[in-house]
Amino acid sequence: MDIPQGNQIDQQKLEQLKTGMTKKQVEFLLGTPAINDQYHANQAHYVYYLFNGKEKISELKTMVLTYEADILIDIKGKL
């Protein structure tokens, strides 16, 4: 049995993600981030984890978005 957790976002939506977008636009496009760090309020963490039950392997992907004045200024990682 496969066990997916977190933010699974399709490729078309990820291709639309660009710096300069507002935080509301990003959340409309991608959904709510998996982690909102209270110590880094200007960052949103999108995380996707998949355990493949048949092959017994796991996959972890992360993407950290950084905002300045609610405008997306940096994208690190890839889902």
Give a description of the structure.
By secondary structure, the chain is of the alpha+beta class. It has one domain (3-77): 2-Layer Sandwich (Beta-lactamase Inhibitory Protein, Chain:B, domain 1), CATH 3.30.1450.10. The protein is built from 2 helices and 5 strands; from the N terminus they run βααββββ. It has helices spanning 11-16, 23-30; strands spanning 3-6, 35-36, 43-52, 57-68, 71-77. Strands 1, 2, 3, 4 and 5 form a 5-stranded antiparallel beta sheet that branches. It is elongated, with a radius of gyration of 14 Å.
What's the helix-strand series? EHHEEEE
- Helical proportion? 10-25%
Please tally the β strands and state the result: 5
Percentage of β-strand residues: 35-45%
CATH architecture: 2-Layer Sandwich
Query: Terminal Cα separation, in Å?
Result: 21 Å
Shape, principal axes of CA atoms: elongated
Strand-pairing-aware structural class: alpha+beta
CATH class assignment: Alpha Beta
Number of helices: 2
**Rg of Cα set:** 14 Å
Query: What's the CATH topology label?
Result: Beta-lactamase Inhibitory Protein, Chain:B, domain 1
What would the average pLDDT be, to the nearest integer?
93
The number of domains is 1
Biggest pleated sheet: 5 strands, antiparallel
Oligomer: single chain
Which runs of at least 5 residues are low in confidence (pLDDT < 50)?
none
Chain-wise SSE layout:
Elements: E1 3-6, H1 11-16, H2 23-30, E2 35-36, E3 43-52, E4 57-68, E5 71-77
